[in-house]
Amino acid sequence: MTTEQTAASINPWQVAQQQFDLAAGRLSLDPGLRRVLREPRRELTVHFPVKMDDGSVQVFTGYRVQHNVGRGPAKGGIRYHQDVTLDEVKALAMWMTWKCAVVAIPYGGGKGGVIVDPKKLSLKELEALTRRFTTEIEVLIGPERDIPAPDVNTNAQVMAWMMDTYSMHQGYTVPGVVTGKPISLGGSEGRTEATARGAVYCIVEAADHLGIDLGRSRVAVQGFGNAGSIAASLIRDEGSSVVAVSDSTGGIHRPTGLDVDRVIAWKKEHGTVQGFPGSTDVTNADVLEVDCDILIPAALENQITARNAGSIKARVIAEAANGPTTPDADEILHERGVFLIPDILCNAGGVTVSYFEWVQDLNRDHWSETIVNAKLKEIMVRAFDETYRIARQEEVNMRMAAYLLAVQRVADATSMRGLYP
Ligand code: GLU
Fold it and tell me: What is the pLDDT of the chain when averaged over all its residues?
């Protein structure tokens, strides 16, 4: 059985609830509070028509879920993918709640998704789909209510269309309704790189604590989208050698190291990393198991499972993706002494710079990239250190430590607010 097949058979929402239950149990959370935080606050399903280039009308299905809005507006990306499900979006929304709490930014958690393979749409169809989906979820979104952002297969252009659609309906420009916009429309410097940059700040901290020399480290990266390709470049800049990468079509391996810039150029030209001169084609699952020191899963959920956790060679796993590791795999990795930097900490750089973007938009301000990166580093290093300290104190793995930190923060906010009515 391939990893992909295994991934499809595991329900991310069950994984998310299981992770929460483990933390809630350890925190001895009040049972009522536990029941509240275990479910999403709001779930919206929309079926909406789009006029296609051939004149036909197709109906697409999309979701927007707000898991929690206790600490601030719901925050989280919009994903376009053929395998999107409501349960996946619920899981991703819950993970956003914990992620925002780990880095202590004043947001709750939300997520959206549309069931579509955007690679099969023309630009015009993609714009029409985005504008109609934005209109459908307008009952929930807004700069004080719920703020979307890019996720898998969405980008600054999609955010510009969302912002324009929302603004047209309001009658004035509302930059703060989405983040991850182009710089020309109130986007933040450094937002595109932020997820990868935050992950690399975490890896540098981990290497420091574990006595790992990044200049001698070999890295494998699964996923070559926004997070994966930029993480590969940034870890190369730290002196590490990137020995394997993959995208949705497959992977490549070169034990002596790949030229990351040339792989990026190759993918741009050929639409795939495979066939890169001097490397061997491997499968997406193989990339997880290659001989390396640091593994960066930067693709989709449920890639590291009980099936392959025992075969992973890396000493450090840095989860740039959301939900790449199942709870069973977590246990195996922990027993094997693998140091895992969990998603809700590791990839929180993206939403952190989204928060900076929103603050700049609300203040009609624009910060330099130097300021953005310095603030990002401060937040990521602090969150890493707080998590690491809890892991040591409580003798738990980094995921449990991050959950203990996050769930406690959300629980405190929720109980201070009290129950309405
Ligand atoms: N989609 C990203 C994530 O999963 C960013 C969300 C945001 O910036 O709101 O964290």
Answer: 97
